[in-house]
Each structure stands twice: as structure tokens, then as C-alpha cells.
Design goal:
about 325 residues, Rossmann fold, 6-stranded parallel sheet, 5-stranded mixed sheet, 16 strands, about 30% helix, HAD-SF_hydro_IA, Hydrolase, PGP-like_dom2, hydrolase
């Protein structure tokens, strides 16, 4: 994983912003004005001029107020429009996400807990007369009681919450095989000064147990099962995480590995980084096999720039 800082913007004259530039805007002798939303944007390859209605991260807007010859501005403009990935021209592997804060899932994103999750949930599914393989398709990303409700919709919710308390206790006590996702220690060190929060379906005790077993530092801001009334794919956790950090969801990048988690992040209005094989087929804005495949750069003004490392293997 490569980390570094983006150099201050250089003056430029009406050209598309180079990948990685922090230039805010510029003009040309013909009156074209380029603007880049640095609060949250996608930057890819240099591309032709787009119409004002297309959003590619590079905003090429006709601005008659720019007088001919007013070239080379480096003033940062913050348009209200949030840039979205142009999937017709920018595959997720080429995308660059820029945000002001990060919302991080835990299981499958920072720690690999698949061994214990699958071991305990297979046992539970077998006890309920369910197909364990089918049950595991629902488990990832959700709180335990929500998984039980999805698999056994006719069962009283009180029983789901009671069995979930037992499951949480068993999961907290069993950390055999819990290890960090490749690149997680370096990633957390790289974003230590970037506003970030843990947004997990685990409760506080389980989050502490698994992050501790993986040797990872706990983010100071944590949205755990106790913090919310609804489980992913409901966006409540990500909305609360963004609010705790003091940013709008559209200024945050969410990291997730599961279908439920990615759905929750999108519903909250965040852009998404999908980690690992579960996320690869779910069309996140940026997909990487693990955190070791992610390049992280923090700009002088505090934005974080995320991209896939060129040499990273396919997800």
C-alpha cells in the first residue's frame, strides 16, 4: 500500500485536472471554466469536455463571468452538487474517491472474522433446520437478530433478540482465527488524522474483542449495535456516524464488504469502497481485494484521496 501527501496545486490553463491534482478551478481565453468539487469527487483519466448536466468529478461549466485571459486560477470552489461515478466511462478499478471523512465497517473490512462467524452461524442454522450455506448468504453485515428475522420471519422478535444475546456472548468469547484484513494496520495508521468512525453491526464488547484480537486500534468514534435501533441495510448507522464526525453523508466515504452494508451506505448518501470478494460483484464506487491494494493520500487541506493501487490483483 502506498501512502503520501498530494502536492499543492500547480497553476494550469483551461486543461482537465490531472489525476491527483487539488486544483479547484481555472479558465481559458474562450471563457470555459473548470471546477472540481474537492469536498467529494471522483477523478479518473483525462476526459473530453462534458456538458454541464454530466457529472464526472470534473465539472466543465460555461461561465460568462470569466473574462477572456483570466487564466490559471487556483481558487477552490465548492459547488453544492456531489460528484457521482460515471460508470459508462470510469470502471470502479480506475476511480479515485475524494472525501472529508471515512465510515468504516469492521467484519470483512478491517478484520477477517469469517472463521468464527461461519462456525457459529452454521451451528445455529443446523439447530433451526436451515441450510447453513443459504443462511450464511444473509448473515454478513446484519445484526444477529435481523439475520434471524430474515431467515425465520414467522418467529417472535423477542426470541430473536434473546438468541442474539447468546450469540453475541459466544462470538465475543471466540476470537480464534480473527486476523486483520491485509493492509488494515497500515491503512488505519495512514488515516489516523482523518476524521473516521467505526460503523459496525457488532456491539461494543464484540468490537473490542475482535479489533483487539486483530491487533488494530479502536477508532475513537464508534457506532455499534447499541447506538442504533435498526440493522443494516438501514442507513441509520452511517447517518449517525457522519453526524458524530460533523460531516454530511455526501462528504463521507464508507468502507464495506457485504450486500447489506453497501446498501446501507448508499441509502445514507455515501460513496463506497467495497472490500473483498463479497463486495466485488455489488458495484461499489471503488472495489479492492483488501486494504493492501488501496492507495491513500491526504491533501494539505485535509481531504483524503483513495484509489486502487495499479499493481493490485483483480478482486
Amino acid at each position: 500500500m502506498r501512502y503520501g501527501r498530494v502536492r499543492p496545486a500547480e497553476r494550469w490553463r483551461g486543461r482537465p485536472v490531472r489525476e491527483g491534482s487539488t486544483t479547484g478551478c481555472g479558465g481559458s481565453a474562450t471563457g470555459w471554466r473548470w471546477r472540481l468539487d474537492l469536498r467529494f469527487c471522483i477523478v479518473g483519466k483525462q476526459s473530453p469536455v462534458r456538458s454541464p448536466d454530466r457529472r464526472t468529478g470534473l465539472f466543465c461549466l460555461w461561465d460568462p463571468r470569466v473574462r477572456p485571459g483570466a487564466l490559471g486560477s487556483t481558487e477552490h470552489h465548492m459547488p453544492n452538487t456531489t460528484a457521482q461515478p460515471d460508470t459508462t466511462t470510469q470502471p470502479d478499478t480506475a476511480a479515485v474517491l475524494v472525501g472529508r471523512a471515512l465510515l468504516l465497517d469492521m467484519d470483512g473490512t478491517l478484520v477477517n472474522s469469517d472463521a468464527v462467524v461461519e462456525r457459529l452461524w452454521r451451528e445455529w442454522a443446523t439447530e433451526q433446520g436451515l441450510d447453513p450455506d443459504e443462511a450464511l448468504k444473509v448473515v454478513h453485515g446484519r445484526q444477529g437478530w435481523a439475520t434471524m428475522a430474515a431467515l425465520l420471519p414467522e418467529r417472535p422478535m423477542e426470541r430473536n433478540h434473546a438468541e442474539n444475546a447468546v450469540m453475541l456472548a459466544r462470538e465475543t468469547a471466540d476470537v480464534a482465527g480473527v486476523v486483520p484484513i491485509p493492509g488494515a494496520p497500515e491503512f488505519l495508521a495512514a488515516v489516523a488524522r482523518v476524521p473516521h468512525a467505526l460503523v459496525t453491526s457488532a456491539d461494543e464488547a464484540l468490537a473490542r474483542a475482535r479489533m483487539g484480537a486483530a491487533g488494530l486500534p479502536l477508532p475513537l468514534v464508534r457506532i455499534t449495535a447499541e447506538s442504533v435501533g435498526a440493522s443494516k441495510p438501514d442507513p441509520e448507522g452511517f447517518l449517525k456516524g457522519a453526524a458524530e464526525l460533523g460531516f454530511a453523508p455526501a462528504e463521507c466515504v464508507a468502507f464495506e464488504d457485504s450486500e447489506a452494508g453497501l446498501a446501507a451506505a448508499r441509502a445514507a448518501g455515501c460513496l463506497t469502497v467495497g472490500i473483498g470478494p463479497r463486495a466485488a460483484g455489488l458495484s461499489p464506487d471503488l472495489a479492492v481485494p483488501d486494504l493492501d491494494a488501496l492507495d491513500v493520500a491526504v491533501t494539505p487541506d485535509g481531504h483524503v484521496r483513495l484509489s486502487r493501487r495499479r499493481s493490485a490483483a483483480a478482486v
